[in-house]
From TrEMBL:
<feature type="domain" description="Nucleotidyl transferase">
    <location>
        <begin position="2"/>
        <end position="248"/>
    </location>
</feature>
<dbReference type="InterPro" id="IPR005907">
    <property type="entry name" value="G1P_thy_trans_s"/>
</dbReference>
<dbReference type="GO" id="GO:0046872">
    <property type="term" value="F:metal ion binding"/>
</dbReference>
<keyword id="KW-0479">Metal-binding</keyword>
<dbReference type="InterPro" id="IPR005835">
    <property type="entry name" value="NTP_transferase_dom"/>
</dbReference>
<comment type="similarity">
    <text>Belongs to the glucose-1-phosphate thymidylyltransferase family.</text>
</comment>
<dbReference type="GO" id="GO:0008879">
    <property type="term" value="F:glucose-1-phosphate thymidylyltransferase activity"/>
</dbReference>
<keyword id="KW-0808">Transferase</keyword>
<dbReference type="InterPro" id="IPR029044">
    <property type="entry name" value="Nucleotide-diphossugar_trans"/>
</dbReference>
<keyword id="KW-0460">Magnesium</keyword>
<keyword id="KW-0548">Nucleotidyltransferase</keyword>
<protein>
    <recommendedName>
        <fullName>Glucose-1-phosphate thymidylyltransferase</fullName>
        <ecNumber>2.7.7.24</ecNumber>
    </recommendedName>
</protein>
<comment type="function">
    <text>Catalyzes the formation of dTDP-glucose, from dTTP and glucose 1-phosphate, as well as its pyrophosphorolysis.</text>
</comment>
<dbReference type="Pfam" id="PF00483">
    <property type="entry name" value="NTP_transferase"/>
</dbReference>
């Protein structure tokens, strides 16, 4: 499975913070925002990743992450010329996706919770089983996260068997309190579906429209993320502050880092102890370096 991080947009909800820099470069406590969605794809064992951003910001991500070799992964980059909608990423990334299935995560979404890695791995395995059967028709998988104010989100309605009934974008009268966060898994037919989309009233290719196409042929699945799971949309000043405070609290109380890319790569065996040592040696004296040094003592 390939992975795409959409790190585009103009970040108007965060102005003036984003007037001269991408919001996905902004810090969420001690790391750039893009570390968090990238860590989600890595936890899902996805090693081929495409980052899509604006003409202004794409070089910042290349300078920050390079080709991913230092993490044992492969990162490529593409430009989204204008904010034409989330679903455009499947057209921009058509050649990158090729004949594979694809996971999409929005660059301003942060997930954290016990057992989340297993949820991700199971989701990838679900689509891998279809690929082993030489079938690309694995459908689509979205997630449902309970919120107090469903009218502010895209909402998924489903029955007691988790069968999706309907989708709605910021409904005045929500039929569900489960928001759809910015993490999606699709089979390879998502490319053809994106190709037939027409722009919405906002003149964008909507991700909800893609999901509705899967729903219309009964190929849309939903997994719920309940108690113990945390999801943040950091596209607003409030969301950014809440996420930063959460990360600070977890890391300082438990001693475990959230979205430490080198830790994920090392514990998964994608980089060796020697390669981790080389990364550490290049860092200046900081808490992040000290944390990486502590990983050297772990039995891997």
């Amino acid at each position: 499975m390939k992975g795409i991080i959409l790190a585009g947009g103009s970040g108007t909800r965060l102005y003036p913070l984003t007037k001269s820099i991408s919001k996905q470069i902004l810090p969420v406590y001690d790391k750039p925002m893009i570390y968090y969605p990238l860590s989600v794809l890595m936890l899902a064992n996805i090693k081929n990743i495409l980052i899509i951003s604006t003409p202004r910001d794409i070089l910042l991500f290349e300078r920050l992450l390079g080709n991913g070799k230092q993490l044992g992964i492969n990162i490529k980059y593409k430009i989204q010329e204008k904010p034409n909608g989330i679903a455009e990423c499947f057209l921009i990334g058509k050649k990158f996706i090729g004949n594979d299935n694809v996971a999409l995560i929005l660059g301003d979404n942060i997930f954290y919770g016990n057992g989340f890695s297993k949820v991700l791995e199971d989701s990838v395995d679900y689509f891998q089983n279809f690929k082993l059967k030489k079938s690309n028709d694995g459908g689509a998988m979205i997630f449902g996260y309970p919120v107090k104010n469903p009218e502010d989100y895209g909402i998924v309605e489903f029955d007691e068997n988790n069968k999706v009934i309907s989708l709605a974008e910021k409904p005045a009268k929500p039929k569900s309190n489960f928001a759809v966060p910015g993490l999606y898994f699709y089979d390879n037919t998502v490319i053809k579906k994106a190709e037939i989309l027409k722009p919405s009233e906002r003149n964008e290719l909507e991700i909800t429209s893609i999901n509705e196409l899967y729903l219309s042929c009964n190929r849309l699945k939903v997994k719920t993320l309940g108690r113990g799971m945390n999801w943040f949309d950091t596209g607003t000043p409030k969301g950014l502050m809440e996420a930063a405070n959460f990360v600070e609290a977890i890391q300082n109380r438990q001693g475990f880092y959230i979205a430490c890319l080198e830790e994920i790569a090392y514990t998964k065996g994608w980089i060796t102890k020697k390669e981790l040592t080389e990364i550490i040696d290049k860092l200046k004296n900081c808490d992040y370096k000290k944390y990486l040094e502590s990983l050297m003592l772990l039995p891997i």
